[in-house]
Amino acid sequence: MKRGKLCFKILFLTALFLALGLLNINGISALAISAEIPSPANGVFYPQNSAFINLSSADTENNSIILDFDRSLILWMRMNNEAGENSTFIKDWSSYGNNGSCSEVSCPIFNANGKLGGAYDFDGINDVISTSLTNWYNPNNSYTFSFWYKPDEEQAKGLWRLGGFGDTTHCEHTTPAGNEMLRCMIYNGTDYTAGIIKDIVDGDTNWHHAVFRFNNTNASLYYDGELVSSVSGSNFMRATEGALNIGVWHIFNWNGSIDDFMIFKRALTEPEIVSLYANQTLKYLGVNFTNLNEGLHSYQGYSQNLLGQIVTTGPITFGIDTIAPAIYAENFSPLCAFNYSNIILNATINDTNIQNVWVQGNWEGIPINYLASCVNISSSIRNCRYIINSSFLQDGESFSWQFFANDSIGNLGMGILNAYTLTRRTILTMTPVVPDGLNSWYVTEPHFTLTNPDATNLWYRWDSSYAISYTGTFGLEKAPNNGNITAGVLELHYWGNSCPGNESDSNITVYVDLVSPFITLLSPANNSKVYNNLTPIISAVLDELYFKNSGINKSTAMLKVNGNLISPADYNVLNYGDIDALLRYNPILGLNIGINNVTINVSDNSGRNSQLSWSFEIILTNASINLSVISPVNNSYISPSGNNRIPMNITSEVVLDKLEFIDYADLFPRWTLLCGDCKSYGNTRIIRRTFSEGWHNITIRATDLYGGIQEKRFTFFVDSRAPRISSIFPRRGKIFNGSIFSLDYSEINLRDIKLNILNESSSEIVNIPCNESSELKINCNFSLNLSRYEDRYIDFFMNVSDYARSVKSKTTRIRIDTIPPVLNVISPITTDYSTRVLFNLSSSERVRIEYMDLLDVSPRWRVLCSSCVNYKSTRTFRIGNHDVVIRAIDFAGNSDEQEIAFSSS
């Protein structure tokens, strides 16, 4: 800045500060400092690699300006005995905390009348302030030492040194050969590479400001704001010089005062050095920093007056950003991408000032910008991604994408324009294309063709069987269970290896029914004879043969007898297994004596149809069989000796050609011969037949020697397994309130469960609401109001009954208690406590007392006492709010509880 502009600046600031009341013409300090345009603003990035710092200060006292740029001020000992300091501890007011110390026998003495506020007086014998500098070394060997000093009359003393005893970088005020001088020298470990001398007027004991500045090319010494001289050189500083001793060099201790000792890890500009010299009330400092690195920088300006008062601009951080964001390490996953997978686009963005990151893509038909999501890896690196949802992708589609990023300056970074074609999925073609049967069923064998021009190999698999390599169009020949014959419901999986790794398999469920229903188990049988029965039951099983076929469509069944269409209301079509049916017709009117013809027509759910006709002959005879069935008994519940072998006792008045029976409860009913050429079965000796558990519907048929037939029908229930009781609750001796009765039992044909209660004066029976039947153990829980037996003993047992027998549990004696205890909480109450809280509790009877803090992270019950009437003790609680429930539980399970809210601090 030209001198005329500087003078105008100072005059302008003087007028400004007077107008704002920052200067006081009466001499009372009004110290102020400001960073003005074009100084960088806080938090702003700039598109150039330079910054001009423009500071101005004013005071009624002479003042100095200190500029700490990028935290280059690594030591600032103000030596004002301020807060935090004492006689042996001198604080470093820089941001690094390189504090100084001394022992009591070698400490300088604080003097409140220093140059800038206070100072320290050194006695010239053993006073030394020591510090081990951290974060001080600069590979560019650029440093500035600034300090105020005042010598006593005796000279030849060291002001400061870097490193230990002996040859070091240092400054000294000395009198060699009688000439008084200030000498600063740099030692590189071998010799002194630079030394500058300032001749001093003999006997000068005033305060003086010295600045020793050097870098790898020259060293300079300033004295009271003016350049003494400069010398050139190189390799000035040693990396090992990290210790600083103030008040000594070699064996020479300083005799005088030192104030405001500073070290900068850079070579200050001459305007900065001049601004450090406190010789004016108004000051202006302008410094242009060039060739700044990309990223964040900071500066802080200080103004200090002769009273040692300090004001600051506060730390100001700004950024240099001349480079567009760099986009690299772009990739996508999965590498083998199909339209059914989300695709993740990735990129790494490098910039200290990233503002937005986005992706431009065309997978929706036109290029659209999508905001990427990013994760910070460091202050300048972000990992960013965008996920393309599979719903936007088409099979075999080609799409492209490109990452973009900008910073707050407007620099735009662009990634590579990437393109990818989705791998095509394997396509299945079926012939015929549409199922040729009803309800999505094929009634002819379909054939399958796989195509995928992107795949090297194709495979398919039926259900969960082995993979089959595709070689050409295939049918059901390799499907499970001889599929091209039995067919049924089949699941076909198919896939290819289009890129590294196979595509996910696709699947389709195929419904194939290749066999028409089979009409079988005819009754009466084809060409059979029926004697003395004009209304024989006509029946046939409508069989779908294979268990995965489509199943009988019962609504399509049609019956004709002797050419007459029978109304569906007159016959039944019943389920016969999972997919088969049983058609059953019981004629009300008598059929023809002689030949009778029957026709049944039925379709399955796929539309396949079958029809069958057969005939039988009815013959009447005069023989009287008079069949008598003593056992089994109609509508009976049978459980003989705990097994399912049922006695059969049947007699006839005439000799029978055969005696047989059929059980329609069987899965496949059929006639079973009991005896032939006989008059009785099981009458002269007990004969038992085995029947399964449950209901049975049997017909016993006697055929005489002339073909005459007599039939009798019976229904009965077989229950050969007695109920079993595993355990009951409560147990003997318990005190009980009736809240939870428990019974473990097993019974497959349960009729009822009853609870029997006995006491000294009465008894009662209660039906239990449990009705589940199973061979496995069943748990039954129920509750009962027992207050009528309060404080008395009762005996109870339980009966579990099926339709044939009843089983009784053991009798158990218990005492009844249904009245809950009364809990009295004296303490805690709703108030504030310390972390120790007194619990003072009592109960109307002996109980277990416990508590739970509902505001705990994992609330749980904590026992205070297990069997007590009174409890008094303290418990520890964390600091904060608490919502505590205290509960008293008696031996019968009755309880009383109270909730108290309090806080601990």
What does the model show?
With 905 residues, this protein is mainly beta. The protein is 3% helix and 52% strand. The protein is built from three helices and 72 strands. The model is unreliable at 1-28 (pLDDT under 50).
Summarize this structure as a short list of keywords or feature phrases.
single chain; about 900 residues; mainly beta; 8-stranded antiparallel beta sheet; 7-stranded mixed beta sheet; about 5% helix; about 50% strand
What Rg, in angstroms, do the CA atoms define?
54 Å
| Helix residue percentage | under 10%
Continuous helix count: 3
Count of distinct strands: 72
- Report how far apart the termini are: 63 Å
* Uncertain stretches of 5 or more adjacent residues: 1-28
Tell me, what's the shape? elongated
Mean pLDDT: 89
Biggest sheet features = 8 strands, antiparallel
Q: Provide the structure class.
A: mainly beta
Strand content: over 45%
Q: What is the secondary structure topology, with strand pairs?
A:
Blueprint: H1 3-20, E1 32-35, E2 45-46, E3 51-69, E4 73-77, E5 89-90, E6 100-101, E7 109-111, E8 119-123, E9 129-132, E10 143-151, E11 157-162, E12 169-174, E13 181-187, E14 192-199, E15 208-214, E16 218-223, E17 226-232, E18 243-246, E19 248-249, E20 252-253, E21 255-264, H2 270-276, E22 280-289, E23 295-305, E24 310-312, E25 316-320, E26 326-333, E27 343-350, E28 354-361, E29 368-371, E30 373-376, E31 381-388, E32 398-407, E33 412-414, E34 418-421, E35 427-431, E36 447-451, E37 458-462, E38 468-469, H3 483-486, E39 488-496, E40 506-512, E41 518-523, E42 528-531, E43 538-543, E44 558-561, E45 564-565, E46 571-576, E47 580-585, E48 594-603, E49 609-619, E50 628-631, E51 636-638, E52 645-647, E53 649-663, E54 672-681, E55 688-690, E56 694-704, E57 709-718, E58 724-729, E59 735-736, E60 741-747, E61 750-758, E62 763-767, E63 774-782, E64 793-802, E65 806-808, E66 812-816, E67 823-827, E68 832-833, E69 836-853, E70 862-876, E71 880-889, E72 895-904
Parallel strand pairs: 2-25, 42-49, 51-57, 59-66, 68-72
Antiparallel strand pairs: 1-3, 3-22, 3-23, 4-21, 5-6, 7-8, 8-21, 9-18, 10-15, 10-21, 11-12, 11-18, 12-13, 13-14, 15-16, 16-17, 19-20, 23-24, 23-25, 26-27, 27-31, 28-29, 28-32, 30-31, 32-33, 32-34, 35-36, 37-38, 37-39, 39-40, 41-43, 43-47, 44-45, 44-48, 46-47, 48-49, 50-53, 52-55, 53-54, 53-56, ...
